[in-house]
Design a protein that fits this description.
This protein is mainly α. The protein contains seven helices and no strands. The chain is elongated, with a radius of gyration of 19 Å. One of its GO terms (cellular component) is endomembrane system.
């Protein structure tokens, strides 16, 4: 039997498949509609203008639900393993679950509150999704090492730690670029790509480059054929060409 058909393993498998499809489909529709630049657009850029905004919102909402289901399943598995062979305090596992669920709530906020409509709420949700998601992966890496070798191999733990380190290294410069852009007033304006200042474009490109590994990260927390967990998030940021044209017309 295929590994993703055993037990609850189909949940994280569906999470990765569905989330990847959400990013790819919304990106393709946005590019074909001429709403974004094909080269490294913000993920949220591909979900600000109809029709891709509806696709993006619906699919990311379901991804948030699948993420929450995956994390809760992981929590119950670790809880049962800890009862069989004690290796970590239950509070540590609970804190990990809470942070993961908060990250999923952040995903839902990003999907439902588009940046150009409610920018403060959108950015807050994105911050929750990124930070809580990265901390969750770190906590799960620690739990994996604590449960080794009873429930995990050392090589699996090393892989999880490496993915967590990459996520941490990516999220810091990504957030810094966002703050620099906001405080300098060079981005987060509803202007067309051609009207953006050069420094604003650089900030957006750099931020996107670092944000992509987080948005697409695949995090394994159980060995095959046991349950595995995959996290996928979307990033923040966005522009609307049509709104930009309206703004320019009023100047």
């Amino acid at each position: 039997m295929l590994c993703f058909l055993r037990g609850m393993a189909f949940v994280p498998f569906l999470l990765v498949t569905w989330s990847s499809a959400a990013f790819i489909i919304s990106y393709v529709v946005a590019v074909l509609s001429g709403h974004v630049n094909p080269f490294l657009p913000y993920i949220s850029d591909t979900g600000t203008t109809p029709p891709e905004s509806g696709i993006f919102g619906f699919m990311i909402n379901f991804s948030a639900f699948l993420g929450a289901a995956t994390m809760y399943t992981r929590y119950k598995i670790v809880e049962k393993q800890n009862q069989t062979s004690y290796f970590s305090t239950p509070v540590f596992n609970l804190v990990s679950l809470v942070l993961g669920l908060v990250g999923c709530i952040g995903m839902g906020i990003v999907a439902n509150f588009q940046e150009l409509a409610v920018p403060v709420v959108h950015d807050g949700g994105a911050l929750l999704a990124f930070v809580c998601g990265v901390v969750y992966t770190l906590l799960q890496s620690i739990i994996s090492y604590k449960s080794c070798p009873q429930w995990n191999s050392l090589s699996t733990c090393h892989v999880r730690l490496a993915i967590s380190a990459i996520s941490c290294a990516a999220v810091v410069p990504s957030i810094l670029c966002i703050f620099v852009s906001v405080f300098t007033g060079l981005t987060f304006l509803p202007l067309p790509q051609k009207s953006m200042k050069k420094k604003a474009k650089v900030n957006r490109r750099v931020s996107t480059c670092f944000r992509r590994p987080i948005g697409r990260k695949v995090y394994i927390v159980k060995e095959i054929p046991q349950h595995c967990l995959v996290r996928s998030k979307q990033s923040l940021g966005g522009m609307c060409v049509q709104e930009g044209r309206k703004l320019i017309a009023t100047l």
